[in-house]
Amino acid sequence: MALRKIREIGDPVLLKKSKPVPEVTPKIKELISDMLETMYDADGVGLAAPQVGILKRIVVIDISPEQDSPIIMINPVIIEKDGEQTGGEGCLSVPGKTGIVTRANHVIARAFDENMQEFEIEGEELLARAIQHELDHLDGILYTTLVEGELMDNDSE
Ligand code: NI
Hints:
By secondary structure, the protein is an alpha+beta fold. Helices cover 19% and strands 32% of the residues. A hairpin with a 5-residue loop joins strand 6 and strand 7 (118-124).
């Protein structure tokens, strides 16, 4: 395992569309464990492969306070969303900033795990927000383009 460099806003890789992953090779497994290590090291709740410069449709999420419940999503798609939530959001690729974003409050997504087993995940509130935010990264969308009002300095960091 190794830490990967997190790409920051202004890096063109963050605006590109990622490609589907046809199979989980040892290299993909290594990428996933590096992404988890990099996310935990940076105290993030989610990380998408393009944020470490790899244009593949892979995201990792962990919203648990103990940071011991990783969710690995390969080729994820949102199949249902409803409701609405408006709240603060941040991104490891936009350090020190936060902004208000409105998203669906409830989502159901389908993805493959690190063994290429398909699964569905249902999320509300923070998990729903994280899923939508991370999946946006796979299409080159940063939350900064969705922010209502100004991007603010995050004083808690
Ligand atoms: Ni992000």
